[in-house]
Amino acid sequence: MTTISETEIPGGPGGPGGGAGTGSDTGTNTDAPLSGPASAPGGAPQARSAKAEALIAQTDEHTAHNYHPLPVVVAEADGAWVTDVDGNRYLDMLAGYSALNFGHRNPVLLAAAREQLSRVTLTSRAFHHDQFGPFVAELAALCGKQAALPMNSGAEAVETALKTARKWGYQVKGVPEDRAQIITCEGNFHGRTLSIVSFSTDPEARNEFGPFTPGFVSVPYGDASAIEAAITDDTVAVLLEPIQGEAGVLVPPDGYLAAVREVCTRRGILMMADEIQSGLGRTGYTFACDHESVVPDVYILGKALGGGILPVSAVVADRDVLGVFKPGEHGSTFGGNPLACAVGRAVVGLLTTGEYQARARTLGTHLHAALATLPKEMVREVRGRGLWAGVDIDPVFGTGREISERLMARGVLAKDTHGSTIRMAPPLVVTAEELDWAVRRLHSAVG
Ligand SMILES: Cc1ncc(COP(=O)(O)O)c(C=O)c1O
Fold this sequence. Notes:
The protein is an alpha/beta fold. It has 2 domains: 1-105 and 377-447, Alpha-Beta Complex (Aspartate Aminotransferase, domain 1); 119-352, Aspartate Aminotransferase, domain 2, CATH 3.40.640.10. Helix content is 34%, strand content 15%. The chain contains 14 helices and 15 strands. The chain has helices spanning 50-62, 95-98, 107-117, 132-143, 154-173, 194-198, 203-206, 224-230, 256-267, 319-322, 338-352, 355-372, 400-409, 432-446, and strands at 74-78, 81-84, 89-92, 147-151, 181-185, 216-219, 235-240, 270-274, 298-301, 313-317, 379-384, 389-393, 412-413, 415-417, 421-424. The protein has a 7-stranded mixed β-sheet, sandwiched between helices. Strands 1-2-3-13 form a 4-stranded mixed β-sheet. A 4-stranded antiparallel β-sheet has the order 11-12-15-14, with helices on one face. The longest helix is centred in the middle third of the chain and has 20 residues, at 154-173. Pyridoxal-5'-phosphate is lined by residues 97, 153-155, 158, 189-191, 241, 245-246, 274, 276-277, 302.
């Protein structure tokens, strides 16, 4: 069995953080710092400074404890690397849950934001502005659709899609009012609003947040026949993630998405793909649905659409679907603001070249090959596509949290999801050498 030996942090020109191989071709800064994390090779963490401790204490004192962040306080970032307030550097293997697909402070995206900051940032939709039309046209074209409706957060885009499906059901399909049903999948994660947690199957997301919004039925993920069996005359849509991210990077069986597409077409309901985490290059294609050449009726996008700079989300569909809204029926003060549209246009521009998707494909193969060399007694299963992996560590080696903390001490930022699964989703500007290094660090953190 091949095992990966622990080596010192690669550094110097061409090493992690050096930016080699991620230069102008991907729009990444090439002047990134050249050294690795300040913690000693082998993983001895540097003690946190009083400044870092004070910032963490201030956070604990003055906000809701709805997150359990790793005890690192980031002060700067560049490409695939972040630096904490004490000057320690870490390879970012989480990438803001895929919001940073194009890397931290991608220069092309920063330039677009700066240019727009110098002109106009907010109008509300009470007026037209000169970035809105181009953004929705360019985004719709990227998706092969006719129209796009921009929002801000991912959850807001999901809510918008749910409202779209209900309106479509009443106006186009002829479902009697207040009867619309939407089919969702067990293990889903679509956000945190009340209606969305109403169809979550995760008790942590739901407990003590009822009463819940009615109108949803849940079926097992990965089983198209379960969807078909759940369809009634009142069903208007199926909402699914093409890969379930929060559930542990669960890839459905081959043919599932195509089978769902076929059922939705035959039974006259909308297929709505939440590509907020899986889309925009992450899996090696623009959309995870592309792996099965499937085109849903509705794409739900977010995260990387804002280029890691600001929240930008959208629902993208043809006019017969998005055309159901009339003035006053839906909206958002910040949705589609000039700054968001300018950054979103630059994101669409990066994706139009296909470079990032190709990078995610090639580097994804590299990452999965490296993960496959980890000892089988340590790693129970690795799932994923492209630059996205869920690594199930045998729980005897520690909880996901413990392993994430040990990884942090070794200069790699990753986050656990359910149990002992570590998810790896670095910015797509990461290099093969950096991925190898991260996998060696994982080996050392587990073993
Ligand atoms: C698939 C999916 N949908 C929706 C969301 C919610 O996005 P946001 O946190 O921007 O509201 C997420 C966030 O992780 C997600 O992964």
